[in-house]
Amino acid sequence: MARIDLVDLAHSYGGNDAPQDSFALKPVTMTWRQGGAYALLGPSGCGKTTLLNVISGIITPSRGKILFDGQDITPLSTQKRNIAQVFQFPVIYDTMRVGQNLAFPLKNRGVPKAEIDKRVTEIARLLDLEPYLNRKATRLTADAKQKISLGRGLVRSDVAAVLFDEPLTVIDPELKWQLRSKLKALHRELDLTMIYVTHDQTEALTFADTVVVMHDGRVVQSGTPAELFDKPAHTFVGYFIGSPGMNIIPAEVRGREAKVGGHVIALGRSYDQLPAGAKIEIGVRPEFVDVVAPAPGLLTAKIERIDDLGRIRFARTRLGDAKLAARAPAGFTSSDGTAGLKFDPSHIHVYADSLLVEGAA
Ligand SMILES: Nc1ncnc2c1ncn2[C@@H]1O[C@H](COP(=O)(O)OP(=O)(O)OP(=O)(O)O)[C@@H](O)[C@H]1O
């Protein structure tokens, strides 16, 4: 396994002379730690597969370099990069037995038989494939076939990284839960660098130590699930992660106060030097706004509905033209369909042109 550095890396399918705004992958410089479990998360079309294919060598980037353990491997082919890849759909040999499929990547590289047997047995045990080792792959279900693909991706211990591109797409929802936790356990046991592409936040947050969020061809934040929840670096991260996502509200911000619709909301930090002319917004997660009885000094919102999620109730409200989700404490009712909004100042963030602004204490 290897530490992977991307240095000013960018890709355009339209060639290097295309305007940078149109690049599928906008310039990125970042490091993927040796042995890390990463998820590459973002909506369809944001550039995840492009970045993964640039790392694996399927695509040669229009600009920049990729280093594996400090060595520039940008011109090397996929094979020479020593990468294992698992795709959305099973890639296996139907005519071979399951054990032979798992052994194939090792046999191909001339690994001694005793070591192949040991490794295949270990991977089969970890993926619950032991009972199938002598069965022909062709007779198995799509789920079992994809498990074999995962096994083939994980069987080599000498790879620089294992790349997964939405590997649970074809898996039955019930088994998806099991496999997701299994992959995390496998990461702990096998000590491999893993990069897992998905558009599903639950999949990303359960699998990864570090989640890399992409939006419109850009890596907008890389952090632990808690960091992405507590301190989104970009309004997109706030909105995309969490259910419901973060409330983003246009505001005028001066010092320790935000003004929304003529009302003042206290902030936990001070913002004295916001960039002139920037679009200023505050961001607050629904978990840190409560609906309460309307009172002087509180913003008043119209309640559209209340979603009872068992552990927590969220009020879906309307504030002028904007929608806002807030926590509805136990016992909260509204006689006239309105509510006051009580914000927790320490959890309100300020954004200038969608980027987080660090306030002063
Ligand atoms: N071979 C290609 N030629 C031209 N444009 C492409 C090609 N492959 C992808 N794109 C474009 O590049 C952008 C990023 O696509 P990419 O497949 O990397 O995104 P993604 O986040 O992986 O999305 P998905 O989950 O839908 O695959 C999109 O606008 C897409 O249309």
Which key terms come to mind for this protein?
361 residues; alpha+beta; Rossmann fold; OB fold (Dihydrolipoamide Acetyltransferase, E2P); five-stranded antiparallel sheet; 9 helices; binds adenosine-5'-triphosphate; ABC-type ferric iron transporter activity; transport
Question: Could you please describe the fold and organization of this structure?
Answer:
By secondary structure, the protein is of the alpha+beta class. The protein folds into 2 domains: 4-240, P-loop containing nucleotide triphosphate hydrolases (Rossmann fold, 3-Layer(aba) Sandwich); 248-357, OB fold (Dihydrolipoamide Acetyltransferase, E2P) (Beta Barrel). It has helices at 48-56, 78-81, 98-107, 113-126, 142-154, 173-190, 201-207, 225-230, 235-240; strands spanning 4-11, 25-32, 37-41, 63-68, 71-72, 83-86, 161-165, 194-198, 210-215, 218-223, 247-250, 252-260, 263-271, 280-284, 289-292, 299-308, 313-319, 322-327, 338-343, 348-352, 355-357. The strands form 5 sheets. Strands 6-7-8-3-9-10 form a 6-stranded mixed beta sheet, with helices on both faces. Helix 3 crosses helix 4. The longest helix has 18 residues, at 173-190. The structure holds adenosine-5'-triphosphate (ATP). Adenosine-5'-triphosphate binds next to helix 1. The site of adenosine-5'-triphosphate (ATP) has 11 residues, from helix 1. Belongs to the ABC transporter superfamily.
